């Protein structure tokens, strides 16, 4: 059923930036409301067999009478024209099955109206379709952009979905200070500076930063630390920083180092090395042997950086090499990052494809979704031709604000890079499939060991961590057929008195209550994939009883739960498994299921204790300044940089406080009143 707010369609607006707004997509483009669409033009086609009726609340609704399948799709052709746009196919429960774009909506939809000639995947999708929705756009590029953002928001079952919850790290030379800082950066590029990336992993960035500090001696300390230094730190002593904080180098000399680092990261390594060699020769001629030796060490470090690169394509200064390998309905996409004629690492992805998806469809969906939140390079090399290569090229160029070339290499150095990426994709997929088979066997054995109805698809493991009730944290990890699903891990700060009282049972009750109250609110019908098939609780019969009481109160009593207790002498291998209403169970010491449960328990423990330590560390860094109304992070840094400590701030007078940047007379009065009240 599709409901129309106020019984009408709203005015049509413009497309531009709203496609990327999640709230806009969920509110205005969901299957439950079509009040207004910020598109250049919009149409919603209804079947002839659709009736309009009023609900109990007086809202105008449409309900379907016709059967599903090809006949329904055929009926839509009567009201479609050749405009570009996006279409959505919905099932009887108004769930979006598929989102697609079309250069010509009528021509595209007519393909689905044919009774035969479809793959098994498309045939199943057509058979489940009971209604369709259409949005026309001005251009096909707009349609492609809208399609991918709808896919990201709605996650339709039959679309290719990129499953990636991680942002890529970059190297940033910050320009917000007279002496720029060299550091690692993730997320939105909001800070002023020069960015280099992306790198495949944080490890690759850390290694590169370590090498760059040896060569270019740029600072990596924070601005408050820089301002508070009175003598050089250890980085200067081990020759990894020029110590601009204490005047060991002036702004002009430091600017030369920054310029050299930028040139190096841009691939102009020859010029940098030549300049360093010239400076070393001049220092030697001037009998400045210590300076010459330091320059010699920097040249050696620069040479080591160049030699450490595994792949140095001389003819490819900047590119992403993207290779796809498809086997038995499973896909692996391998991405290599080439920047400054150097390989900056690689990462593999396993998009959700659905049975029957072809290489060009998977690769096109991957490329568009992959560059949704990151800037594409000047060259994107692909392993397969795209059906809409010109359209994808136009979209990437628009996102980058410059020309982007999309190509399939056939010979030469670029083809060699692609061959290497394709080989890695093939090998990664083979390892993934082998691991998946082993994981499925473990889940099957786990279901048999605990007498479940079948192998669990989703396992949630819970644990608590605290020190005598202080900084109490609950942790949840998730595992399934694909191993640990780290993007779905959750942390829970214990808010009740259970934490203060060191009440493990109470803490477990709080965590489970919050978890399942949210599940019942977001997915009461259990249509999604977030409901667990098995709960593992770190603890014995008491913890299991506490969890069972919570589940009974919430009306969720059909999910099996197992308590994992340490057993006799708390030795690993002697674990006891507690189930409600069943005798205590033990597994043989060499049982693979036992090892698997131990891994799950240990991972939950690692996650919970990590959250506890982070909370404890944060508490140690708190100062009385955090409790002052109106004092945020920026003013706190300014006060500490000016006075040196919170105690010195408490002793300061009104004029002294007003001398701090960002502290007005009124705010200085608030600070004084706060400390005076505390005595």
Please provide a written account of the structure.
- With 679 residues, the chain is of the alpha+beta class.
- It has five domains: 2-154, GIY-YIG endonuclease, CATH 3.40.1440; 170-308, no CATH class; 318-431, UvrC, RNAse H endonuclease domain (Nucleotidyltransferase, domain 5, 2-Layer Sandwich), CATH 3.30.420.340; 458-607, UvrC, RNAse H endonuclease domain (Nucleotidyltransferase, domain 5), CATH 3.30.420; 624-678, 5' to 3' exonuclease, C-terminal subdomain (DNA polymerase, domain 1), CATH 1.10.150.20.
- It has 22 helices and 21 strands.
- The strands form five sheets. Strands 15, 16, 17, 18, 19, 20 and 21 form a seven-stranded mixed beta sheet that branches.
- A hairpin with a 2-residue loop joins strand 10 and strand 11.
- It starts with a strand and ends with a helix.
- Mean pLDDT is 80; it is low at 1-20 and 24-66.
CATH architecture of the largest domain: 3-Layer(aba) Sandwich
Roughly how many Å apart are the termini? Answer: 65 Å
Mean pLDDT: 80
Biggest sheet, open or closed, and with what strands and sense? Answer: 7 strands, mixed
Top CATH class of the largest domain: Alpha Beta
Structural class: alpha+beta
Radius of gyration: 30 Å
Strand content: 15-25%
Number of H/I helices? 22
Low-confidence stretches: 1-20, 24-66
The best one-word shape is: globular
CATH superfamily of the largest domain: GIY-YIG endonuclease
Q: Report the count of strand segments.
A: 21
Number of domains: 5
Question: Could you please say which CATH topology of the largest domain applies here?
Answer: GIY-YIG endonuclease
